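Render this sequence as a predicted structure.
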Amino acid sequence: MDYSTILTLCGFSLLAGFIDAIIGGGGLIQTPAILFTLPQYPVPTLLGSTKIPSLSGSLMGAFQYSRHVAVVGKFIAPMMVMAFGASWLGSWTLTRVPNSFMKPFALVILIAVFIYTLTKKDFGQATSQYVSARQQRIRMWTMGVGIGFYDGFFGPGTGSFLVLGFIALIGFDFLKASAHAKLVNAATNLASTLFFISEGKVLYAVAFPMAVANLSGAFLGARLAILKGNRFIRVFFLLVIATTILRFAWDLVQ
């Protein structure tokens, strides 16, 4: 594998980390890039090789947000544990059953999310509702299991779904939702990373340089999101959702 190939993948990974740290969706850039650049390798190995960069970016994003945004620690830690277990189960399930039905299902949800966010101007602009501690616990833990399994089983759009869930179900604004989403996404990425490593499906010569690039992009993206605030993140959220919709729609018509 020549250096130009690795540098190209690192460029895509840098951009993926940047976008993912702001609102999620970095996999829409990083995954197609490695699939098209290294078509000679099996798809599971290529997908496994993107998990280490994704994990690095998630950890950097989580660290940056945690320094500036208060998190609900007593609930987020159990949520991360549940998401970790659910993601591992999702990855295991993926190796045994097809996941083709997920794209149409996710496409419908994403279209509804896009329309709702576009028309509701104040969505995610401020903490919008009071949710009791008991309801926060139930909703966050349910999200951890459901979205964690989705991430391990299918993946694209996980970060955006987490942000949406924290806003719609918990009442967070975009900035606080992004901070919590990165913590949970780090847990799901860790589970998938360990799973693919245990299966021997990682190209370390590609994964490690991409991890450095993704981490760097995540640092810049998180800092920019913190600096610009909720309105900026909302615009990014709509762009990522729109891109995800187009990607899924394109895949379905092929």
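Summary. The chain has one domain: 3-253. The chain is about 80% helix and 0% strand.
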